[in-house]
Amino acid sequence: MTTIAERLRRTVDPAALVVFACTALLLFVGSFYSANFLSLPYLLQQLQVAAFLGIIASGVMLVILLGHIDLSIPWVVTIGGMMSTAMSGYGTVGEVLAIPFGLLCGMLFGIVNGVGVAYLRVPSMIFTLGTNAVAQGLMVVHTGGFAPQDHATDAMHFLAVQRSLAGIPNAVLVWAVVGAVLLFLLGRTTLGRSIYAIGNRERASYLSGIDTRRVIVVCFALSGMLAAMGGVLLAGYSTKAYQAMGDAYLLPAIAAVVLGGTNILGGRGSYLGTVAGVILITVLQSILSVMQMEEAYRQMIYGAVIIGMLLFYGRARKLSG
Q1: Residues 6+ apart with CB under 8 A from 97
Q2: CA spacing 20 to 30 A to 276: which of 60, 65, 162, 176?
Q3: Rg of the Cα atoms in the chain
Q4: Distance CA 178, CA 156 (A)
Q5: Do the beta carbons of residue 266 and residue 65 sit within 8 Å?
Q6: Residue 307: how many CA atoms within 13 Å on its side-chain side?
Q7: Is the pLDDT of residue 230 over 80?
Q8: Nearest residue to 202 (alpha-carbon basis) of 111, 254, 265
Q9: What was the pLDDT predicted at 1?
Q10: Element (H, E) at 16
Q11: Mean pLDDT score of the chain
């Protein structure tokens, strides 16, 4: 007869528990700098900030589970924000279509990434880096190199800033919906099982009958759409889009995913772990801001986390293999 502890161990990712414990420790340490670190308004504010990163990291996780990487995130985020605000300038119809149009643009870039990786067999790191440069060039041409004059719609501002349910920020509710969909996709669907299988052994998955190329394209498309969704919310949060608005989210998104226990080489990871990683990164950013640590040192920390987890998972895979 299984005990409650054994059931929890089977259903809850141990890595997520460790990361949540580290987050609690960081909050406790932060309370020595400011008593607000443990207050409810501060925690809700941190969840609102975490929601933007969490939505972007959700798509990043799907790609990493395949054993690939998406380096086009920064400017696909920017495309989501800029294209949605640009559409808002076309009257009432434009305001209605602003959010869907921004998401569609992000998805199209994701599909291009997926086709390049799955069908053209270009390494994902190289192809998505090129796509990121193309997206940057397109946005510079679109804006003429200047800050765009378009503003976010009321709906974008409502989703990013307002609070509708028990004082919970709407951005957190959007993240919760995204998380619920991904939990169902990864745990209850054939696509989810295929994603894990491809991450473990892509060739073996192909030989077993899985349409690996289709799965890769779908995951990159979702990554692009979720990155654009993050851009839409960021534009709503700041009332307008701006150049390079996604640059600050690439390393934190990857770091959050690998901190949460997702194998950066693919095949293993839980969405709860990614949620834990996102919250830890957000709290860490807040504490570093209070400590007035420069941005360069923050980037060094994210890079060190990614390198450390890559070395750890790479060694674990060799030992298990």
Answers
A1: 87, 90
A2: 162
A3: 20
A4: 16
A5: yes
A6: 6
A7: yes
A8: 265
A9: 43
A10: helix 14-30
A11: 87
41-44, long-range: CB < 8 A, 24+ apart: 44/167, 44/168, 44/169, 44/172
Nearest to 231 by CA among 134, 86, 38: 86
CB atoms within 10 A of CB 129: 14
- Give me the residues paired with residue 169 across strands: 163
Give CA–CA dist 161/172, Å, rounded.
Answer: 10
**Which two structure tokens, joined as six digits, stand for 79?**
């495309």
pLDDT of residue 131: 96
Structure tokens at 198: 């491809």
What is the tens place of the pLDDT at every residue in 53-64? 999 999 999 999
Residue 92 reports pLDDT greater than 80 = yes
Write out pLDDT tens, residues 28-54. Answer: 887 777 777 778 888 899 999 999 999
DSSP letter for 262, please: -
Cα–Cα distance for residue pair 222/217, rounded to 1 Å: 9
The token duo for 236 is 């709503």
Number of alpha carbons in the 13 Å side-chain half-sphere of residue 19 = 29
The closest alpha carbon to 68, from 10, 121, 142, 132, belongs to 121
pLDDT of the residue at 104: 97
**Which residue, among 5, 15, 23, 7, has the nearest Cα to 316 in the 3D structure?**
15
Q: What is the dihedral of CA 106, 107, 109, 112, to 10 degrees?
A: 180
What residue has token string 């919760």? 176
Q: How many whole angstroms from its chain centre is CA 288?
A: 21
Statement: residue 295 has pLDDT above 60: yes
Coil, strand or helix at 164: strand
Q: Please tell me the predicted confidence (pLDDT) of residue 9.
A: 54
